[in-house]
Design goal:
alpha/beta; Rossmann fold; seven-stranded mixed β-barrel
């Protein structure tokens, strides 16, 4: 971590990248990827693999990711390991310099991939110290910048970080959502075969997925569980959802403050609950369901982001190791009488899943699609689609 005296404004020799925080902290490093600067919330991710999936996760819109695993980029990139067409995370902070790719699936060096997608990287950062600072002080506003000549207006970057309003109160789902409806038919990936193309059967139960920032592997898991899927934009109305004649409705993950997205999403979900449509929500979708039944959401101190988060099931006490990515959560104490906790985080006791006792609706805060992450929770897709098969 850089000192916070006047010397911090002068780049040390060889520094071509910098991270400045809203409190004036300046952290120097070596830039890679695209040149320029970007402002957002600085968070950390503890996953050891899957950096390309993490960078393309729409839930990371408005965020700069510090990877706690020191070796990021060593396996390169490829066109299959993506959760959206373009990266949504603003930039990446890593400990070690990116080395030459060493994986048979590689098609492009991480540096070139970032350049192509206009995303900034910084290496040579003490990510352990940065992570500790975030754990103690919370996720700060920051600016990540890269200039090959090492020329930076640090004072201006600090002011940019200070003046950024932060994610609280910010609706980002509209920015990352699809703008029109489309069909999804592909299933899961297997080694040597790729993705299972056109796997959805024409007579399979029909799921309408509301896209607040969908990850592709969620759609693939729905298809693999036996559904056919129609995706609709985050702002789709109740009538637009029902026009597709769904057997069930999926509420997707996504970025930003759930209370802000809920302004237009919650009224739709309330109507879907009234007509008794089975509902399954993940991450932001979980928060939307919570808000729809009268619970509250809040911004977490540091959030949960990684592929090693233990979650306890309340019904049988079994523990699932899960993938998480969220900075907001549903307040357990605010759950109404008709909603019960089904999963609890063993890291901090926060709510990780709920179900309604009077409606066919449930949700989880974590990511059972496991992209990246463990596959302990794939059963949730089978549980949801299995319910639709019984009622279809």
């Amino acid at each position: 971590m850089a000192e916070t005296d006047s010397a911090r404004l002068t780049p040390p020799k060889g520094a071509t990248g910098v991270l400045v925080l809203g409190d004036g902290t300046v952290i120097w490093g070596r830039g890679f990827g695209a040149e320029g600067d970007a402002v957002g919330e600085v968070c950390f991710n503890t996953a050891m693999t899957g950096y390309q999936e993490v960078m393309t996760d729409p839930s990371y819109a408005g965020q700069i990711i510090a990877f706690t695993f020191p070796h990021i980029g060593n396996v390169g990139t490829n066109p299959e390991d993506i959760e959206a067409i373009n990266p949504h995370a603003l930039g990446m902070i890593v400990r070690e310099d990116v080395t030459a790719p060493a994986n048979f699936r590689n098609t492009q060096h991480l540096d070139a991939w970032l350049k192509h997608n206009g995303r900034i990287g910084i290496s040579g950062v003490d990510t352990r110290a940065l992570t500790r600072a975030i754990r103690i002080g919370g996720a700060p506003n920051g600016v990540i910048a890269h200039n090959a000549k090492g020329e930076f207006d640090v004072a201006a970057l600090i002011e940019k970080a200070k003046s950024w309003p932060g994610l609280e109160g910010m609706d980002l789902a509209k920015d990352v959502s699809a703008t029109q409806s489309y069909q999804w038919r592909d299933g899961l990936w297997t080694l040597g075969q790729g993705y299972d193309v056109d796997a959805a059967g024409p007579d399979a139960p029909h799921v309408v997925a509301i896209d607040y920032g969908l990850k592709r592997n969620i759609l693939r898991n729905l298809v693999a569980a036996g559904a056919r899927v129609t995706v609709v934009p985050a702002t789709a109305t109740f009538d637009e959802v029902m026009a597709h004649n769904p057997d069930g409705v999926f509420l997707s993950n996504g970025p930003g403050d759930p209370a802000a997205t809920g302004e237009y999403a919650v009224p739709v979900i309330k109507k879907l609950l009234e007509v008794g449509k089975p509902i399954f929500g993940i991450c932001l979708g979980h928060q939307m369901l919570g808000l729809a039944v009268g619970a509250r959401t809040f911004k977490m101190h540091q959030g949960h982001r990684g592929a090693n988060h233990p979650v306890k099931r309340t019904d049988d006490g079994r523990v699932e190791i899960t993938s998480m990515n969220h900075g907001f959560a549903v307040d357990t104490d605010s759950l109404p009488a008709n909603a019960e906790a089904t999963h609890i985080s063993l890291f901090d006791g926060s709510l990780a899943g709920l179900r309604l006792t009077d409606k066919p609706a449930f949700s989880v805060q974590y990511h059972p699609e496991a992209s990246p992450g463990p596959q302990d929770s794939h059963y949730l897709f089978e549980q949801f689609v299995g319910q639709l098969k019984k009622t279809a």
